[in-house]
Design goal:
It is found in: Membrane. The chain is mainly alpha-helical. It has helices at about 1-10, 15-30, 35-60, 60-70, 70-90, 95-125, 130-150, 165-170, 170-180, 190-195, 200-210, 215-230, 235-240, 245-260, 265-280, 285-310, 315-335, 345-360, 365-375, 380-410, 415-430, 440-445, 475-480, and strands spanning about 450-455, 460-465, 490, 495-500. Strand 3 (about 490) and strand 4 (about 495-500) form a beta hairpin. The radius of gyration is 24 Å and the shape is globular. The two termini are about 45 Å apart.
């Protein structure tokens, strides 16, 4: 996921020198100067095609995960990563901006596929008590990549007219390292046992992961999931979307992904330097403040790792969204009154950095993790594909629309994000279940109105009775309210049915 973070931001720093490269290539080919509109169009394609590649890679992730395995899919994916980085690196030497665009497309596909496979792989190899913390490593890789691209993109390092191709060439390193080191890691035991029916290989993988031969409890938990999957086999994207019992978890997964992308964080990453300058900081100070954003993302993601399995995913997500909501209001205030008071400059910086802090502890990592947790083994790959496609589509939309929002709304450009943050907080409070310390089958049973119980040492799934309000505890009432859809469906023991 370092690759994803790095290539998300790497193209921003050398914008001027790449635009000059596009102009020089056009001049050498035609003998005429390129128009500013045409140059900006080519530049926009080079930037946005990364997200388009990510959409395609994300939607194919489920198929690749099922056919080649989680580990196998990641290994194959590195070929695309190396090819994309090579195309971008040699684009200047070959005098071809088309190579740069094709390289961005290939590396986008690589990153989109990674965002589908990596959370799935991490959630499936992790013990229940560590699943949250290990799942956060996914986002840690993204933030490290973002920071690395910011540092290397400084004009004194690789952000120059001569050295910018090497800035893109750095993307070869994470792909090559993964290609060399991933073979040392085992395949997902769940994939081996449930999909490939290879219990001996699954046991070997578990023993390697747990560093002990005492893995019977983990195997039994996987067998329970396998037995449940006999009634719910591997599903395609279309089957997941049509399955009524999966509509609520799929809705939650989609909204969680949107809560990561449509809350303004990409606007902060893409345009943070401009935001700081518009708040009154000098250009040099604004560049360093932008790097501070990257540093804070890394530090706060590290801080959130132990919290994930203590406080819980839902709790952290609510705190994160709530904090971002408040900070977005202060960002808008600082933009409105920046010329009235000198201290407003500091308010702008503090509000933006605090916005990033709250994003890192909540919406930064939790949507990837909780999407993989909401589904049992059968529909999980297809559900991840849908969620990743939505995430990349929203990413593309923000990059496309936010510059227009700045022109139309000017100093009020963050207010739409403030409204969306409020909507996402309400949805998360009412609908998102806590997945901390629950097995995949226990989480799936929540949405089927079932309970996973242990009888004489054997785990089994039993149907819940329809709720009787006057006998319910406050805790059970809250849980059932949390699992009602927005007035469209009620989940009963026999599956969803229309509300009357």
């Amino acid at each position: 996921m370092v690759q994803f973070g790095y290539n998300t931001a790497v193209i921003n720093a050398p914008q001027k020198v790449i635009q000059e490269f596009i102009s020089s290539v056009h001049l050498s080919r035609t003998g005429n100067m390129i128009s500013e509109d045409t140059r900006d169009l080519i530049w926009s394609i080079a930037v946005s095609i990364f997200a388009i590649g990510g959409m395609v890679g994300g939607i194919t992730g489920g198929t690749i995960a099922t056919k080649f395995g989680r580990k196998g899919g990641l290994l194959l994916n590195n070929i695309l990563g190396i090819a994309g980085a090579a195309l971008m690196t040699f684009s200047k030497a070959c005098g071809s901006f088309e190579m740069l665009i094709l390289g961005r497309l290939a590396i986008g596909f690589n990153c989109g596929l990674s965002t589908a496979l990596v959370p799935m792989y991490l959630s499936e190899i992790s013990p229940i008590t560590l699943r949250g913390g290990l799942g956060t490593l996914n986002q840690l890789g993204v933030t490290v990549g973002l920071l690395l691209s910011m540092v290397l993109g400084i004009q004194n390092i690789l952000g120059t007219e001569e050295r910018w191709p090497y800035l893109f060439g750095v993307a070869v390193i994470p792909a090559a390292l993964q290609l060399l080191l991933l073979p040392l890691c085992p395949e997902s035991p769940r994939y081996l046992l449930i999909t490939k029916q290879q219990e001996y290989s699954a046991r070997e993988a578990l023993e390697k992961l747990r560093c002990t031969v005492q893995v019977e409890d983990d195997l039994e938990e996987m067998r329970n999931e396998e037995r449940a999957q006999e009634q719910e086999p591997q599903m395609t994207v279309c089957q997941v979307m049509r399955n009524k019992s999966l509509q609520l978890p799929l809705l939650i997964a989609i909204v969680m992904q949107l809560s990561q992308q449509l809350t303004g964080i990409n606007a902060v990453f893409y345009y943070s330097t401009g935001l700081f300058m518009s708040a009154g900081l000098s250009e040099a100070v604004s560049h360093y403040a932008t790097m501070g954003v990257g540093v804070i993302m890394v530090v706060m993601t590290l801080v959130s790792i132990p919290l994930m399995d203590r406080a819980g995913r839902r709790t952290l997500h609510l705190y994160g969204l709530g904090g971002m909501f408040i900070c977005s209001i202060f960002i808008t205030i600082s933009l409105l009154v920046k010329f009235l008071y000198e201290w407003v400059t500091y308010l702008s910086v503090v509000s933006t950095l605090s916005f990033v802090v709250f994003f890192a502890i909540g919406p930064g990592s939790i949507p990837w993790m909780i999407t993989a947790e909401l589904f049992s083994h059968g529909p999980r790959p297809a559900a991840m594909s849908i969620a990743v496609f939505v995430n990349w589509s929203a990413n593309f939309l923000v990059g496309l629309v936010f510059p227009q929002m700045q022109r139309v709304f000017e100093n009020y450009s963050f207010l739409p994000f403030t409204g969306l943050l409020a909507i996402f907080w309400i949805f998360s409070y009412r609908k998102v279940p806590e997945t901390k310390n629950r097995t995949f089958e226990e989480i799936a049973a929540l949405f089927r109105r079932e309970e996973v119980v242990n009888v004489n040492g054997l785990t089994t799934v039993v149907q819940r009775k329809p709720p009787v309000v006057h006998h319910q505890s406050a805790e059970l009432v809250a849980e059932e309210k949390n699992l009602e859809t927005y007035g469209t469906f009620l989940i009963w023991a026999n599956g969803p049915g229309p509300v009357r």
